[in-house]
């Protein structure tokens, strides 16, 4: 069976395309910039011209969206378990370093076959977005090489395997190279932790935009003692309720981040009655509690921090020293007690949806290099 059409569909236009099988739509589904750096494809035509993706062979940053269609028919034309070594020279010739695949229903054998071939490429960052993975993956192991990526981002990806998807995907990765893992809008974060191997080099884990996760789901998602090198943990908009509750889950999972982002959760300032006092990781030096709807400084914060971000909350007075940890850099911008005219009616002075200062509705906070914290205009990610 022929592997080429399958791989071309999801980026590898390095082999022959079934030319002439569909009319060429206007405008072209793929565009390559003048510097041959970025190539993007969006196959929306009912009869897409896959050959348009050939121009992406020279690009470094490639995005391919399949127009929401199922790729099941391609399984009839390809052998996803074929030995990918026959394509090694062609794959190594590709310039691609960043690849985004999206908007498709993809059979698991198809996806895993593609990743087996990409293991011979120079790919460093892989993003899967708006994808439904159907069926079971093939039993054929990837082999000794593995996919040598340092960054993996998944957004709105569903798996027929349920929570077992992480351990299955992990089998495709070269051990010890993945440093950044971002999982957003996940359909399942309840991993069977006994099947998950350690991520020895992972320094950044971002589980933001999973509002159903909650504190109770955090231990299952973190899988105890699987992230020994973790430094940055982002849990924005992830259903967290109290900082102390998060602290308890971190302790249970044996996770010791240096920087923790709990912004954009609806946090309570008081701990749950009966909760034991939690000891925060000694490594933690930066805590982001911005955009959390807090009306007072939460209980149970770490005793000492380099950075504490309480910006864009609902603090009506300056925090007392006995409410704060020993902190080197405290950010309070955008709280009512600092806003000129804060005594005016709320609808005039505060954002009607969040109750925070108008400036906060137009900005996102970012933690900068060396623990320096600033308020920046525009949307910025967790570094």
TrEMBL record:
Lineage: superkingdom: Eukaryota
Location in the cell: Cell membrane; Golgi apparatus; Membrane raft; Secreted
Signal peptide positions (record): 1-19
Keyword Amino-acid biosynthesis set for record: no
SUPFAM superfamilies listed in its UniProt record: L domain-like
Membrane topology category: Lipid-anchor; GPI-anchor
A GO term for molecular function: lipopolysaccharide binding
InterPro entries membership: Leu-rich_rpt, LRR_dom_sf, Monocyte_diff_Ag_CD14
First-listed, main subcellular location of the protein, grouped into a coarse class: membrane
Cysteines joined through disulfide linkages: 30-41, 39-56, 193-223, 247-278
Xref: Gene3D superfamilies: Ribonuclease Inhibitor
Keywords: Cell membrane, Disulfide bond, Glycoprotein, Golgi apparatus, GPI-anchor, Immunity, Inflammatory response, Innate immunity, Leucine-rich repeat, Lipoprotein, Membrane, Repeat, Secreted, Signal
Biological processes, Gene Ontology terms: cellular response to lipopolysaccharide; inflammatory response; innate immune response; positive regulation of cytokine production; toll-like receptor 4 signaling pathway
Coiled coil: none
GO cellular component entries: external side of plasma membrane; extracellular region; Golgi apparatus; lipopolysaccharide receptor complex; membrane raft
Subunit structure: Belongs to the lipopolysaccharide (LPS) receptor, a multi-protein complex containing at least CD14, LY96 and TLR4. Interacts with LPS-bound LPB. Interacts with LPAR1. Interacts with the TLR2:TLR6 or TLR2:TLR1 heterodimers; upon interaction with ligands such as diacylated lipopeptides and triacylated lipopeptides, respectively. Interacts with MYO18A. Interacts with FSTL1.
Name of the protein in question: Monocyte differentiation antigen CD14
């Amino acid at each position: 069976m022929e592997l080429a059409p399958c791989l071309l569909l999801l980026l590898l236009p390095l082999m022959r395309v079934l030319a002439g099988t569909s009319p060429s739509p206007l405008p072209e589904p793929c565009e390559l910039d003048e510097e041959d750096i970025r190539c993007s494809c969006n196959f929306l035509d009912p009869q897409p011209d896959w050959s348009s993706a050939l121009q992406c062979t020279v690009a470094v940053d490639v995005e391919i969206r399949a127009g929401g269609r199922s790729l099941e028919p391609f399984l009839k034309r390809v052998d996803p378990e074929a030995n990918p070594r026959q394509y090694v020279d062609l794959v190594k010739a590709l310039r691609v370093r960043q690849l985004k695949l999206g908007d498709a229903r993809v059979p698991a054998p198809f996806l895993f076959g593609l990743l087996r071939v990409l293991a011979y490429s120079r790919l460093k960052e892989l993003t899967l977005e708006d994808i439904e993975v159907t069926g079971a993956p093939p039993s054929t192991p990837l082999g000794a090489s593995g996919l040598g990526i340092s960054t993996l981002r998944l957004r709105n990806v569903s798996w027929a395997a349920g929570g077992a998807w992480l351990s299955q995907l992990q089998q495709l990765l070269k051990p010890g190279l993945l440093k950044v893992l971002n999982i957003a809008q996940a359909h399942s974060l309840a991993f069977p932790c006994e099947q998950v191997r350690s991520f020895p080099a992972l320094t950044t884990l971002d589980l933001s935009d999973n509002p159903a996760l909650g504190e109770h789901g955090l231990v299952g998602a973190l899988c105890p003692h699987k992230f020994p090198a973790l430094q940055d943990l982002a849990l924005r908009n992830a259903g967290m309720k109290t900082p102390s509750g998060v602290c308890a889950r971190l302790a249970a999972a044996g996770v010791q981040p240096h920087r923790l982002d709990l912004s954009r959760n609806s946090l309570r300032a008081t701990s749950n009655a009966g909760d034991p006092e939690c000891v925060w990781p000694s490594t933690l030096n930066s805590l982001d509690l911005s955009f959390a709807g807090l009306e007072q400084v939460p209980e149970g914060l770490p005793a000492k921090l380099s950075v504490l971000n309480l910006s864009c909350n609902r603090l009506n007075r300056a925090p007392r020293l006995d409410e704060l940890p020993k902190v080197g850099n405290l950010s309070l911008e955008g709280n009512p007690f600092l806003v000129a005219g804060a005594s005016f009616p709320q609808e005039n002075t505060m954002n009607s949806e969040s109750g925070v200062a108008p400036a906060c509705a137009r900005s996102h906070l970012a933690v900068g290099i060396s623990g320096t914290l600033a308020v920046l205009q525009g949307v910025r990610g967790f570094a």
